[in-house]
Amino acid sequence: MKENIKGLLFDLDGVLVDTAVYHYQAWLRLAKTMGFEFSEKQNEELKGISRMDSLDKVLGWGKVTKSDEEKLELATKKNDWYVEMINKMTADEILPGVLEFLKSTYEAGYKIALGSASKNANIILKKTNIAHFFDVIVDGNSVSKSKPDPEVFLKGAELLHLEPKECVVFEDAAAGIEAAKRGGMKAIGIGDKNILTQADKVVSGLDKLTIQDLKEL
Ligand code: B16
Ligand code: MG
Fold first, then answer.
1. Cβ-based neighbours of 28, under 8 Å, separated by 6 or more
2. How confident is the model at residue 3 (pLDDT cuts 50, 70, 90)?
């Protein structure tokens, strides 16, 4: 029987909670201060990528050029607005099935890590009251390379004292699935199988997964 998965590495935004809507509101507010707007569809492209890479994309949409110093100021402004919103988050904003899946896998003895690009991951886990499930947190503060580089997940596996092949990554972004595969891990995509083509399995949410699915990977 195939039963080699021991560690679970979760992306945050789009897998455990939906903070994309807050990122969108804050980026849009910033864009408006510079005299342009962008669509919710364009915002999809910001999912899973770092804050500064997101800013570059937003500035590109507005055809605006800024110095490095100005970019830092803009990113700080956006983050202040974003943090103001996530500070008001509650457990009600956890995505369907997440609590049940975290609880059952935690109780079954799986080791659990967070692998997120966000520098605000700790605030979100705390506000939504799920921080206690995580043995390890690897976030935007502890990695230097963005997904699709595998650094965030390799670090997570290492801190869990597991081999990459003993871990499965849960991700909603194609770049995150690519990071998992490049790191030598299994990957479960949360979302559309036509987009998350490299994933070993794709489901619409953690409410559609059971421990049995992990054993069959
Ligand atoms: P911050 P994830 C990512 O989180 C978001 O999907 C992405 O939109 C955001 O730009 C990035 O975190 C950085 O977030 O500005 O809070 O550091 O999907 O990797 O959990
Ligand atoms: Mg994500």
1. 37, 38
2. low
What is the per-residue pLDDT across 177-202, written as a single tens digit (0 to 9) for each? 999 999 999 999 999 999 899 999 99
Nearest alpha carbon, ligand 1 atom 5: 48
55 lines ligand 1 (CB under 6 A): no
Q: What would the DSSP string read from start to end of 42-60?
A: HHGGGTTS-HHHHHHHHHH
Active site residues: 11, 13
- Domains observed in the chain: 7-18+91-215 (3.40.50.1000), 20-86 (1.10.150.240)
**Distance between first and last Cα of the chain:** 11
Q: Name the closest-CA residue to atom 16, ligand 1.
A: 118
Q: How far is the CA of 1 from the centre of ligand 2 (A)?
A: 31
Residue 14: nearest ligand to its CA? Answer: 2
**Prediction pTM value:** 0.93
Spatial distance between the Cα atoms of 167 and 154, rounded to a whole number of angstroms: 10
- The pLDDT tens digits of the residues spanning 84-107 come to 999 999 999 999 999 999 999 999
- The reply to whether ligand 1 has any atom less than 6 angstroms from the CB of 128 is no
Ligand nearest to the CA of 27: 1
